[in-house]
Amino acid sequence: MSGRWLAGKVGAAVLTLVFVLVFNFFLFRAVGDPTSQLARLPGATDEQIEQLREDYGLDKPLLGQFADYVGDTVTLDLGISQTTREPVWDEIVAALPWTLLLVGTGTLLATLIGAWMGVKAATHRGTRTDDGLLGFSLFTYASPEYWIGIILILVFAVAWPIFPAGQQVTPGVEFASWFDEALDVVDHLILPMTAMTLMLLGQYFLIMRSSMVDVLTEDFITVKRATGLSRERVINRHAVPNALLPLVTLSAIQFGAVAGGAITIETVFSWPGLGELSFNAINDKDFPMLQGTFLVFSFGVIFANLLADVLYFYLDPRVQSR
Amino acid sequence: MSGERGVRELLLGTWRGRFGIAVLALTVFVAAFGGLLAPYDPYASSTDVLEPPSWSHILGTTENGSDVFSQLLVGTRVSVVVGFAAALISAVVGSIVGLAGGYFGGWTDRILDAFENWFLVIPTLPLMIVLARVLSPSLTVLIAVIGLTSWAGTGRIVRAQVLTLRERPFVERARALGAGDTYIIRTHILPNTLPLIFANTVLIVAVAILSEAALAFLGLGDPTRISWGTMLENAFSSGAPSAGAWWYVVPPGLCITILVLAVSLLGFLFEEYINPRLREAT
Fold this sequence. Notes:
heterodimer, B: mainly alpha
């Protein structure tokens, strides 16, 4: 039964991805004939435009064009950026590690701190600690992450300049070793990573808190306490591991937010990832690039969702017996 | 606690309710009359560029020498209009999809559910960006794009509720007595789903306000109107943060935060009211 469950999840993910391809294809065809932009060259004759249409396969029927598009996408040919004239895929490959670094460290920190805060609040329910943590997380939940980023720049890069305000590495510096360069990157990473962490923290905290509150009312906790184990030990060894489970599935709903946050936070900090590529593509009306980054963001989120499902499947035996 | 008295108690009996109602009332008032309250023309530029707060400009000036406070007042309208209009569209679409899928079941449900799933999984901001860029930004486009991309959660909740309602004795009785689908949906299903739709829509208002601000910040706002998001965009792109112009950067973001916080708290309150099980968890 379990193999079937997994196959169903993979099937759904593939179907979603196919939907993305269809959507992407039709939306950007709807913008108009791509040659109308290509043929803005002054003095282009009708024959030249015809030639361009043929080169781009636009004289074919729609289904044929779609087949071409899928074929190109699968072979990672995402077209040419209209501003830099570089292949879109090459630019994405260059930007991807930076986004993964920012998103990975931000998510990791948010999970750890959010879980810790959630346990604190749930074990101190109704106290000032609980109220304070709730208030703080509601505030970060309600505030735009790019605004938090700008405030971080204002405080820690301008008023009290201890961190750089943007980019990934100090420009024009020859580093003595890779270690010095890595330190410089970390220095640049801290502010955007903090913005990303603050954006995600609230949700993780709320999930962990309510999950922990639920677990603490369960019978086995009372039984463990009755056997004479200390409160700390019961919380740390028995309650927390059980309360962590929902964090895995429920964190999946965060992946969409992570993609959005990557765009706005990278914009604020000129962090050279996929988000900044998208931002530049928005301003330059660079449709192939916008299409490419949207595809990669969608693929990333679908894949991360699938991964969360699989992880939950292995962590919670109750799902496997279904 | 039920009926009208229950709702009043809910809104005015807790600090969360009072805070939410007060902020919302003030915001709607400013959205309606902000233009009249503004001490300066928010679009007028002057030579007093990036001036810190003073008696003549209580929140200082922008990179064009415009009055920040006046822009803040006038910008309220876009946030409120987009937030509520987009949430309304999202509620209508989500309700129709959820009702149709849950009530009719079968292939209708399967197709609508697949559709819904797609919107739930696809990252919303990138999707909105792509749509807004292709359609070229205006107030209507913003409302449509945000409304049409954020209905999936509502659809899912409505569908689940309709699925349980469909099997209830009073619905079966009506059907046995010969009532048609439209009649059953109108008199039995919809009235029992509306509170849920309402609570969910209040939460969507908060999401829509944040979405408008994010799109505006990325340069996809209505170029002819000031909003809190476009203020942040102008402040950021003109280098106000590195100039230390906190008076220009802090107020728009704080307004967004307080409004979103107020609306979210009201949404949570309504959710708890409908589903008392949630109250135990908080």
